[in-house]
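Page 37, continued from 36.
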C-alpha cells in the first residue's frame, strides 16, 4: 500500500497577524477621518449642500404660459385678446393607486364638468392608459368651470356637509388643470385682413399679428416643486412675462362703416358662387381711409374678409366638396387667397388716380408754370403708336385744372413730354413708387416700374396717366396724401402706441415725415384742380352734399395674364378723394377690381361707395358741411335732399331695365355729328398701350412673411 502524503498545514503566523492589525487600523483611521470630515462639512456648509440635494429631488415641474398682448383700436376697443382656458387632465396612475378614489373622482368629473362616464372609465381600465399620468379629458374649459370643480373637490371647513360627505370629497384625486391661452377676436370678421390671426403656438399668420408677433409675445414662466427633508412639498415660481399691447390707428366705428358699404356693394352685384369672383360683387373691392397729415390709417378693408376665430372656414368661398377635392397645396393657396390684404400685397395699374402725381411733379421741376394750356384732339401719335384719350373726339383747349377735372389723357401725355423721362422717373421714386412704403404690415408689394434705360416715349406717355407700371393701393394713398397736404410724405402706419403688460406706454409711434417731394405751391394748385374734378368733372358722383372736397377718378384697362395684351372689357375702377379741400383732414381711396356688371368702366361705382362712406364718417370726425346744398348739386349726384341727410342714395349704378327686364343702355353724350363721345365712364380702348414691365411675374420688393403660408407652418389642422 502506498504511503499517504502528509498534508502541509498553513499557520496564521505572527507576522500575518501584525499585517492584518495594521490594515484594520488603517481602515479604521480612514473611516474616522471621513466621519470627522463629514461632521466638519455638515457643521460649516450643511445647509448649502442640503439645498443642492433637495433642488435635485424635484417633485414636479410645469410651464406657466405667458399671455399674448392685446390689439386695441385707437379708442381702446379690444380687437384681439388672449383668454385663459384650461385642459382637464386625469392622472390615472394616482386614481388607480387606491380603489377608494375611483368612484368619487368619476362621479365629480361627470356631475360637475359634464364629462362622459364611459370615456373616463375606459381610460382608467385600459392597459395603455391605466398607468398614464397625463390624459386630457376635455379642452378649453373656463376659469368658472375650473373654480366650480375645485370648490366641489375641496370644500371649506365651514361647509355644511356631513363628515362622511367631506371624507367622500377628499377621495377625489388625480384631477388637475393645465392652463393656457386661446386667441379671441371679439368683432370676428372686422379688419380681418389687417389684424390677421395667430395659432396655438402664438405664431402670427398675417396682418398685425404677424408683423408685431415678437412684440405681442412674452416669455413663459415656470413652477418647480420638490420634497424637503421633512417630506413637505416646496414650490418655486418664476412668473411669466406677458406680451405687450398694440394700440392701433384703426377706429372700429369708421372700420364698421367702411365694411358695411363693401358688403352692400357685394350683395347688390353678387356673382354666381361658381365664377372667379366666388359670389362677390367684384374680383376685389378695397377701401383705405386715413389722415393725410400723420400717416395714420383709420380703416382698411377688402371684400375678402373672414372669421378670425375660425380662419379656415371657407363658407361663402368654397363648398365642402370643393375643399375636399383640393390637394393640401391647393387648400393652402385657397386660404392664402382669402387671407391676403389687397391694399398692400397686390399691385396693379392705377389709372388716372396717378395723374395728380404727374402734374405736381411737372410743376415742381418747372416744366409747368401753372398757366399753360393744352390742345386735346383725342390722342397722341407717339413714335409709331396711336394712344387715345378717354375722349377720342377731343376735349379741346385744356388748362392744368381742366386736364385733371376732365381726366384728359392727351393733356397728361403732353405734360409728361414736358417733364421728360429723367425727371419723370426721378419723381416716381421720390413719391415712393417702385419701393415699399414701410407700412407696418407684412407682405407689402413694391410694384414694378420701368428702369430709366427701358423707358421711351411710348412708355412715358402711358405712364403719365397711370398705365404701363404697377403699384399698390397704399402707395397711391400715400402719394395722393402728399399731393394735397402741402407736399409732405408721411410713412403710413397702423400702430400708434405699444403698451407694456401693465398698461403703461412703452413706445409712442409718432408721425414719420420721410420727405417733401413737392412744394406748398404745387400742392395748392393740385387741390384746386381736384376740387374742380369733384364739383364739375369726372368725380361728381363722389360729392358729399355741403362739403368742399377734392378727388380723382381712375379707370384702368387690365392686362390679360395669359396673353400679355389689354383685356377688353376688364377694368379696375377707383376713386381717391379728400375732405375738406382747403385743409384736408381725411383721405379715402376706393378700388373696385372688375365689378360684376355688364360695362365695368361705367356707373361711377367707386365714387358712389366713397360718397356713402364719407357721408357717415365726416360728422363722426367732427367735420361738418360748410356750403349750402343746392338742388343742382343733388341732381348731379342723383339723390334727394332727404337722402342726403340720411346718407343714402338712389343711383347705385345698377343697370336700368325696361318693362320686360331687358337692360337699357345708358344714353351717351354725342358730338354735333351724332358720334358717341366716350368720357371717363366710357374709356376709349387702347389695344396698343404698353403693358407694365414684368420681372418674372414677381414684384421687385416685398416685406414681411412669405405670401404663401402652409397649414403645417401655422400649426393648423
Amino acid at each position: 500500500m502506498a504511503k499517504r502524503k502528509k498534508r502541509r498545514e498553513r499557520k496564521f503566523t505572527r507576522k500575518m497577524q501584525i499585517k492584518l492589525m495594521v490594515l484594520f487600523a488603517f481602515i479604521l483611521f480612514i473611516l474616522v477621518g471621513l466621519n470627522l470630515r463629514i461632521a466638519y462639512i455638515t457643521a460649516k456648509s450643511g445647509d448649502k449642500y442640503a439645498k443642492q440635494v433637495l433642488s435635485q429631488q424635484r417633485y414636479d415641474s410645469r410651464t406657466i404660459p405667458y399671455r399674448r398682448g392685446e390689439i386695441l383700436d385707437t379708442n381702446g376697443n379690444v380687437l384681439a385678446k388672449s383668454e385663459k382656458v384650461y385642459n382637464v387632465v386625469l392622472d390615472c396612475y394616482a386614481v388607480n393607486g387606491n380603489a377608494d378614489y375611483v368612484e368619487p373622482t368619476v362621479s365629480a368629473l361627470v356631475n360637475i364638468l359634464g364629462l362622459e362616464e364611459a370615456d373616463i372609465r375606459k381610460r382608467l381600465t385600459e392597459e395603455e392608459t391605466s398607468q398614464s399620468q397625463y390624459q386630457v379629458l376635455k379642452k378649453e374649459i373656463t376659469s368658472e368651470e375650473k373654480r366650480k370643480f375645485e370648490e366641489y373637490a375641496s370644500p371649506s371647513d365651514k361647509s355644511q356637509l356631513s363628515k362622511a360627505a367631506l371624507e367622500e370629497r377628499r377621495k377625489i384625486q388625480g384631477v388637475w388643470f393645465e392652463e393656457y391661452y386661446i386667441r379671441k377676436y371679439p368683432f370676428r370678421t372686422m379688419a380681418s385682413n389687417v389684424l390677421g390671426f395667430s395659432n396655438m403656438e402664438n405664431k402670427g399668420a398675417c396682418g398685425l399679428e404677424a408683423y408685431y408677433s415678437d412684440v405681442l409675445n412674452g416669455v413663459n414662466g415656470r413652477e418647480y416643486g420638490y420634497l424637503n427633508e421633512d417630506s413637505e412639498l416646496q414650490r418655486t415660481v418664476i412668473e411669466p412675462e406677458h406680451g405687450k399691447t398694440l394700440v392701433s390707428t384703426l377706429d372700429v366705428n369708421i372700420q364698421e362703416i367702411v365694411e358695411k358699404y363693401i358688403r352692400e356693394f357685394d350683395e347688390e352685384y353678387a356673382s354666381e358662387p361658381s365664377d372667379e369672383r366666388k359670389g362677390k360683387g367684384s374680383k376685389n373691392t378695397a377701401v383705405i381711409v386715413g389722415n393725410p397729415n400723420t400717416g395714420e390709417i383709420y380703416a382698411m378693408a377688402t371684400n375678402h374678409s373672414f372669421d378670425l376665430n375660425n380662419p379656415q372656414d371657407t363658407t361663402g368661398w368654397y363648398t365642402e366638396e370643393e375643399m375636399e377635392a383640393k390637394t393640401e397645396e391647393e387648400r393652402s393657396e385657397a386660404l392664402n387667397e382669402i387671407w391676403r390684404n389687397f391694399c398692400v400685397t397686390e399691385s396693379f395699374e392705377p389709372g388716372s388716380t396717378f395723374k395728380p402725381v404727374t402734374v405736381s411733379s411737372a410743376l415742381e421741376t418747372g416744366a409747368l408754370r401753372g398757366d399753360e394750356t393744352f390742345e386735346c384732339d383725342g390722342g397722341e401719335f407717339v413714335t409709331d403708336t396711336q394712344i387715345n384719350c378717354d375722349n377720342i373726339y377731343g376735349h379741346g383747349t385744356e388748362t392744368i385744372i381742366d386736364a385733371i377735372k376732365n381726366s384728359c389723357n392727351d393733356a397728361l401725355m403732353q405734360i409728361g413730354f414736358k417733364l421728360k423721362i429723367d425727371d419723370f422717373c426721378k419723381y416716381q421714386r421720390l413719391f415712393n413708387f417702385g419701393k415699399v412704403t414701410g407700412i407696418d404690415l407684412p407682405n407689402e408689394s413694391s410694384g414694378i416700374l420701368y428702369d430709366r434705360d427701358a423707358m421711351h416715349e411710348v412708355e412715358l406717355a402711358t405712364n403719365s396717366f397711370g398705365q404701363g407700371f404697377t403699384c399698390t393701393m397704399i402707395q397711391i394713398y400715400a402719394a395722393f396724401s402728399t399731393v394735397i397736404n402741402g407736399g409732405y410724405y408721411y410713412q403710413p402706419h397702423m400702430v400708434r402706441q405699444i403698451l407694456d403688460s401693465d398698461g403703461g406706454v412703452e413706445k409712442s409711434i409718432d408721425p414719420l415725415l420721410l420727405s417733401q417731394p413737392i412744394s406748398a405751391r404745387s400742392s395748392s394748385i393740385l387741390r384746386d384742380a381736384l376740387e374742380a374734378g369733384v364739383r364739375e368733372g369726372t368725380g361728381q358722383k363722389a360729392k358729399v352734399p355741403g362739403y368742399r372736397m377734392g378727388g380723382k377718378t381712375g379707370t384702368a384697362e387690365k392686362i390679360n395674364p395669359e396673353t400679355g395684351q389689354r383685356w377688353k372689357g376688364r377694368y379696375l375702377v377707383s376713386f381717391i378723394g379728400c375732405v375738406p379741400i382747403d385743409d384736408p383732414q381725411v383721405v379715402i381711396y376706393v378700388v373696385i377690381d372688375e365689378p360684376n356688371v355688364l360695362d365695368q368702366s361705367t356707373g361711377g361705382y367707386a365714387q358712389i361707395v366713397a360718397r356713402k362712406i364719407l357721408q357717415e364718417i365726416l360728422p363722426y370726425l367732427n367735420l361738418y358741411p360748410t356750403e349750402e346744398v343746392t338742388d343742382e348739386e343733388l341732381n348731379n349726384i342723383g339723390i334727394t335732399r332727404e337722402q342726403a341727410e340720411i346718407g343714402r342714395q338712389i343711383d347705385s349704378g345698377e343697370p336700368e331695365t325696361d318693362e320686360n327686364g331687358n337692360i337699357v343702355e345708358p344714353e351717351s353724350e354725342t358730338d354735333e355729328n351724332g358720334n358717341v363721345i366716350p368720357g371717363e365712364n366710357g374709356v376709349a380702348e387702347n389695344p396698343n398701350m404698353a403693358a407694365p414691365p414684368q420681372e418674372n411675374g414677381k414684384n421687385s420688393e416685398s416685406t414681411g412673411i412669405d405670401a404663401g403660408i402652409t397649414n403645417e407652418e401655422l400649426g393648423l389642422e
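Residues 605 and 653 are 6 Å apart (CA to CA). Flag for discussion at group meeting. The domain at 256-304+342-664 is CATH 3.40.710.10 (Beta-lactamase).
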